[in-house]
Model the fold of this input.
Amino acid sequence: MSGAPEPTPEHDDSTDAEVVLSVRDLEVSFGTKRGRAEVVRGLDYDLHRGETLAIVGESGSGKSVSTLALTKLIPIPPGRGTGTAHLGDTDLISLSEAELVHVRGQRIGFVFQDPMTSLNPVHTIGRQLTEGMRHHLGLSEAAARDRAVELLAKVGIPSPEDRLGDYPHQFSGGMRQRVVIAIGLSCDPEVLIADEATTALDVTTQAQIIDLIAELQADLGMAVVWITHDLGVVAGIADRVLVMYAGEVVEQADAPELLSRPRHPYTVGLLASLPVLGDTERGDLAAIPGLPPPPTSLPPGCGFYPRCSFRSDERCATERPPLREVVAGHLVRSFYEVPEEQSRRASAATRIAIEPPDVRDEGVA
Amino acid sequence: MSSPLLEVEDLHVHFPVGRGRDRQLVRAVDGVSLTLQPGETLGLVGESGCGKTTSGLALLRLVEPTSGRVVFDGTDVRSLSKRDLRSWRRRAAMIFQDPYASLDPRLPVGESIGEALDIHGLHQGKQARRDRIGDLLERCGLHPRVADRYPHEFSGGQRQRIGIARAIACEPDFIVCDEPIAALDVSIQAQVMNLLTELQQDLGLAYLFIAHDLAAVQHVCDRIAVMYLGRIVEEAERLDLYRAPQPPYTQALLSAIPIPDPVRERERERIRLEGDVPSPIDPPSGCRFRTRCRAVFDACERIDPALQEVADDHRAACLLHGEVGTEVTG
Done:
């Protein structure tokens, strides 16, 4: 695409790359009938150019809200959002609604989970695709249209010129999500936020979309925040991972390190509870007992304390553990680390007894 | 092998769409055969629209099959009268994906379970009914006193436990589990899978486990059948299917499933499938996967492949193993 930044060289998760988004002390809460819901409780991270950061967590962990709050895509006020989030030199949190309009869709692109709800059913996809470009980039109708065709071709939609006049229902789920990605990319954003972007899709379509975003990322050099609950997806694409639980980051590390040597009891529990293809064991899965705490009544100490099988003394129950760096680049919010042996046993790498089938040969295996 | 609990032969479910001249048929299920032994779990996997849910519903006659045979423990299910069907349903239950949609929001959950008992006359007196509901809830990991609460007061995982309690209320032999964990968070999925396994062991249930999550299916099922566009394309023992998938579709499906191990996930080869699944209104002639298959050859258009034995207890519908099937006419 014209004006696209230089492609980044092979990214090695190092911190040399320029920081594009820097979030500090982000807190988001809402008033509810049952009291204040503290949905995000102090989030810090840096996102580098060309990097893929995965935010992992279950429903209610605050992973979506933490990114929606950056551009006030959730109602703030009445919700409360504090902290800073620097996109380049701009602190997003301090921007007014009028100023944010120039950030949303232009400097930060979004791809949401369900393309059927993120696309407007009564407008053609051509109109939805050119809207942002005309508004943000000031393109003429004809120029926007040309670029829309180019974008649709780029995301793999056959005969794009003929499809501009079609409505969302005329596309399949996978094709619709491609359109949403094209919209997300239309203004060359510095950051693309993919919020469960492939969750609603079939695995074969998911693989297509993941490859597509990775290719576009390599071409355009944008940074991607990938919000997901699927640790398999994380293993394939993420440079770094934040694991969120009860509104805070409980563990943060490079993806290979986090998945092979998790240290927080929640991360270990999550991995251990996951059925893994190629694992021949058939016993009970090591389920994490109980439920996550509601954001209106969080435990006073560690958020994971009520469900934790490694909890120890009073401190876990009463004191909120700090996020501490246990080895370089690996942060854990816990007073106690999971011993190496138990941690490795939970990892998929250890549990896989049958290798994935070799599919290089065509035809009969 | 003992006699099967369930035998399905050449099951078809077609839905008409459009009217008059525009009337067409959606061939949602188009010739499915399978058998299930007592106490066994058969996984039915495939992508959205492949007909796996419709197959499950048709087995219980929750949608009427267009043709085919369904024999349950010697009973021809399709020939049952309305009344006999009702009493037969005591033996075959269903668990749905979204327990929020499948529980009546205006009924205390205990009543949702109690309804099943009432219909089949399975309790004597109010107190016995109450006790039985309490037992069922407890068996599914909930406190008996929650019987008076409404569905919205529960989390997704708890609601699924209630759905399971209702399904086992009439002591069935067989349960169709339609995506029972898809709507749940990862840490809760394991709890529900463990519960299903435990109940199976205690009650000797047979499950048809319909899901798109192959890792979960591999964990809970004895055998797995893979569907594509209304047909079963492969059926094998749970580990054989993973170790040696035969039709190119199963190979592609398996290669698309992300594995939570970065080393393997980043190094392995994938088969990239292009395009979308064709419409079940007008499926390709011959092999239905031929339009996207990387090993396609001339026979695939001519012959509609039938399931054939490719190894011990392993069947596949693919012409690469020999041109077994029906010649396409016209």
Chain B touches chain A through 58 residues (CB under 8 Å). Chain B has a mean pLDDT of 92. Residues 250-330 of chain B form one domain. Chain B has twelve helices and 14 strands.
